[in-house]
Amino acid sequence: MAKSVERLKSRDLRKNGLSIKEIAKKINVSKSTVSRWCSDIELTKEQIQKLDENQILGAYRGRLIGARIQLEKRLKIINDFKKLGKKEIGSLSGRDLLIAGLSLYLGEGSKKRNQIQFTNSDPEIIKFMIKWFKLIMGISQDRFASNIFINELHKNRAENIMSFWSNVIGMPSDQFNKTVFIKSKSKKVYENSDKYFGTLAIRVKKSSRIQYKILGLMDSLLKANINIKN
User: Fold this and answer.
1) Assessment of whether the complete model's pTM goes beyond 0.70
2) Closest Cα partner for 37 from 73, 65, 12, 66?
């Protein structure tokens, strides 16, 4: 995720053991903002001892414990809903897969005639749609072509990014078109920039008839009667 320069500097200072108050003064932002930016950073024993000398260890421990408790609560809620989702979704039938893929294509797919294209930055969604194209639409592996879109700031990582997507979808590099570098008006600063892989567009060659089929199915889906049994 793109971070402001101030946020990254605040996090670096926090990792070096400075107090929230000291960081806020140096960066010229509020203490609450610094605290939010750095809430997940744990200090070393030596750094905590230094804060203790400044008589703020107690307050720090309180914030740290509170942050940990809130994080644990959030993670538990997320995990509980994942378990619930797995139970409620179960296995997908062919019809389930058809409708799920159509819904995703409605949101992220091309609606232009004679062109099947699905674009997303989430590897799991891309893998799902590749499976959908193959199993539901009968598209063979050799008919796929891909385009990678990345911020021009990551031009030096282009080969690594292509390798990443190639592994995700099991597609050789010769099925990728030339990578598209997106120019940005504002210069973004990235934390963990090695985790950025841009966006992937999946295209299907010679697909006009299948595109008409998808458009027809989407039209029927949107106009279908809804019959929910209690």
Assistant:
1) no
2) 12
